[in-house]
Known about the structure:
Elements: H1 3-14, H2 19-24, H3 29-45, H4 60-63
Helix pairs in contact: 1-3
Amino acid sequence: MTERIQDQDRVESRAHLLPEEAAAGSDDARAQAAAILAESDLREADPGAAPDTVLERRTSEEAAPAVEPPD
Length: 71
């Protein structure tokens, strides 16, 4: 699969608006999705690109402590 097709697939997948986005409305869901994904890619490539954002790479096991059953 070429990179362009993968990008189109990502945009199509993200163009399905979240409930909050649908409530606010969107003139062009595909353009909105492309912009969101481009910003996401930038932040992933350069974690310092967004001043108040920290990109963490943890698994769910690392992020949530294990809960032990009561005795």
